[in-house]
Amino acid sequence: MRIIPPALAARLEGGATTLCRCWALRRPDGLVLGFTDHDRDLMFSGVTYAARSGLEAAEASAELGFAVSGGEVAGALTSAGITGADVAAGLYDGAGIETWLVDWREPSSRILLDVASLGEIRQSGSAFVAELRGLMHRLDAQTGRSFRAACDAQVGDSRCRVSLADPRYHAAGTVGAALESGRLAVALAGDFAAGWFSGGRLAWEGGANAGHAADLRTHLHGGGGTILELWEPPPRPAMAGDAFRLTAGCDKRLATCRDKFANALNFQGFPHMPGNDFVLRAAPDAGARPDGSSLFR
Question: Exposed site from 7, 156, 165, 176, fewest CB < 10 Å?
C-alpha cells in the first residue's frame, strides 16, 4: 500500500488542488534530465524539472502480482532537452525514469508514483512517444544459457576467447563518401575479403559521430572500392574523412568459428543437437517394435 505524506494528503482533501507531474530521466551515462507538465520550472532533490519541455503522460497502466506494468510519455524533440540525434545514438536506451506527483506550490509535498525504464522510442518528425516498462519487466530478461545449434557467446568475450586485438580481426578506415542512408564507401587500412567484417561492429573515432558505435550489416566490394552497410544510419551525417575502426563479425556457425577464427574448441553452441525435423521426419510404424529405429531408415 502506498503511504501518502500527510502534507500532500491534506492538499488532496482540499477543495482545490495544485498538482502536477514531474519526470526525472536518468540516462545510463549519468546525465539526469527533469521535466514537468507545470507552467514553470520546479526544483527538488537537486534536479531542476523544466517546464515547457513538451513532455506529458500519454498512457499509464498498473497490474497486480508479477504482471508487467507500463505506460507511455510523449514529448517534443528539442535542442534544450531530448534530441533526435541522441535518441538515434542510443543514449536513452534503458534509461530510468521516475514519475512524481507534486504540489507545485510546495514541491516538498510530493509522492513517487512509479519507477520504470524506457523501452521502445517511436519518433515522427519533431515528436516522440517513449514506452515505459515497469520493474517487473526485468524478470522477463533471459538469464543463463540456451541449448541451440548456434553459438551464444559474443565474439571476443571471455567464453569465445578470440582476441580481437589480432590484426586479422580489426581494421582502421575512413569514409570516402556517404552513398545513402546507412551505406558508406570507405577506404580500409589493409586488404580484407568481402564479407570479412559482415555482422561486426563499427566504432566511430572521428567526425560528428565520434564515440558512437554501430552494428555492421554487410561488408562488400563494389564500384572499385569497399562498401559498408549499417543496420541503422549513424545518428549524425557521416562526412568524407571521418575515421572509424572495424571489428570482425561472426554468424555463430561452427564452420565460421573453425574456418575464420580457428576457434572450434571454444564454440559455445550445440551443432549436433537433433532438431524437430529429426524427430518428425519418419512416421511410426504401427506393426513395428517401438525402438526408434524408424528414424534411421
Answer: 165
Between residues 214 and 137, which one has the greater pLDDT?
Answer: 214
**What DSSP string runs through the chain?**
-PPPPHHHHHHHHSSS--EEEEEEEE-TTS-EEEEESSSS-EEETTEEEESSS--EEEEEE--STTPPPEEEEEEE--TTS--HHHHHTTTTTT-EEEEEEEETT-TTSEEEEEEEEEEEEEEETTEEEEEEEEGGGGGGS--S----SS--SPTTSTTT---TTSGGGEEEEEEEEEEETTEEEEEESS---TTTTTT-EEEE-SSTTTT-EEEEEEEEEETTEEEEEESS--SS---TT-EEEEE----S-HHHHHHTTS-GGG--S-TT---HHHHHSSPPPTTS-SSSGGGG-
pTM above 0.85, yes or no: no
pLDDT at 54: 56
Residue 297 cell numbers, joined? 531408415
Between these two residues, 200 and 61, which has the higher pLDDT value? 200
Long-range contacts of 189-198 (CB under 8 A, 24+ apart): 192/219, 194/219, 194/220, 194/221, 195/219, 195/220, 196/248, 197/171, 197/228, 197/246, 197/247, 197/248, 197/249, 198/249, 198/251
pLDDT for position 114:
81
pLDDT reading at 281 higher than 70: no
**pLDDT tens by residue, 141-183:** 677 777 888 999 999 999 999 999 999 999 999 999 988 878 9
